[in-house]
Design a protein that fits this description.
Length: 98
């Protein structure tokens, strides 16, 4: 799915990736997040390269959790966020999706 600046959609609560809440798909990552009830715009920033995810964690990750964290970040990187556009759901097959 691709969407706008993400001022409406909650990262952990809304089903914006694979029709499942991210907190259900990645419960350990959700539990380690310092920010839980915010919209996507609170988890990153725009740069000259596009959207950059930025998270604040309660603790350092255990070595055995790093694969899960990598999977989580790769899952997020597959989503296209469109700067300066209205927040809306788009199919990955949509012509405006990159």
């Amino acid at each position: 799915m691709a969407s706008g600046f993400e001022s409406k959609f909650k990262l952990w609560e809304d089903e914006w990736i694979d029709n499942i809440k991210i907190k259900e798909k990645y419960p350990r990552i959700f539990n380690n997040s310092l920010i839980k009830d915010k919209t996507i715009e609170n988890f990153g920033r725009w740069s000259s390269k596009g959207w950059e995810w930025v998270f604040s964690w309660r603790r350092v990750w255990f070595e055995w959790e790093r694969t899960m964290l990598t999977d989580f970040m790769e899952c997020l990187s597959l989503e296209t966020l469109l700067r300066d556009s209205e927040d809306k759901w788009l199919s990955r097959d949509s012509p405006t999706s990159i």
